[in-house]
Amino acid sequence: MQPFTSLTGLVAPLDRINVDTDQIIPKQFLKTIKRTGLREGLFLDWRLRRDGTPDPDFFMNQPRYREAVILLTRDNFGCGSSREHAPWALLDQGFRCVIAPSFADIFYNNCFQNGILPVVLKSEDVHALFHVVGETPGDCLTVDLAAQTVTTPDGTTYRFTVDPFKKDCLLKGLDAIGLSLTHEAAISAYEQTRRAEAPWLFMDRTARG
After folding, report:
1. Superfamily, domain 6-174
2. pLDDT at 34
C-alpha cells in the first residue's frame, strides 16, 4: 500500500449528502476482485444521463477536475453496504483523500486499509472549502497527515483529528497484511517453537491416517 504523508492537489466538489456505496460503485462492478479498472463504474449513475450520454454538470465530466486527487463532499459519505470496491474505485480514479463532515464507519475504516485518507472537518469548515473551490476552480489544497492539517492556497489552515494507530499505519503504508508482516520474525519463531512442542499438529493429513 502506498504511504500517505502530505498531498497537494486539485480538489473535486461533490456537493451531496448521504452518498452511499452503491452510488460510488454500482453493484454490477462487484464481480471483480481486482482493484484496477473500477474507475469506469465510479459514480456511473450520476456521470451518465438516462440516454447514456455524459452529464456535463457532473464534476467528473468537466475537464478542469480530471486530475483531481482530493474529493470534497458532505455528511455521511460512504453509507450503505460495506463494499470495499468503493475505496478501490476512488483510488483507481486517482483520489487519495476525501474530505467531509462525517463518514460511514465501515467506509471510513476501509479507506485507511487502501491508502486513502478520510478527513473529518466541521460542517462550517467544509462549507468554506466549497466556496474556495467554487470561486477559484483549479485551486489546490494541501493535506498534511503528520501535521493533521488542511491548508488552502491563501494559507487558511483547518485541523483534523485522526486515530494515532491509523495515522501511523497510513504514514508507513501498512494495511492489515503489511502490519502483520512487520511481526514476521516473531511469527516464524512461534511456529518453530510450536512445531517442536506439538509436532502432531503439523503432520500431513494422509500421514495421520
Report:
1. Aconitase, domain 4 (3.20.19.10)
2. 82
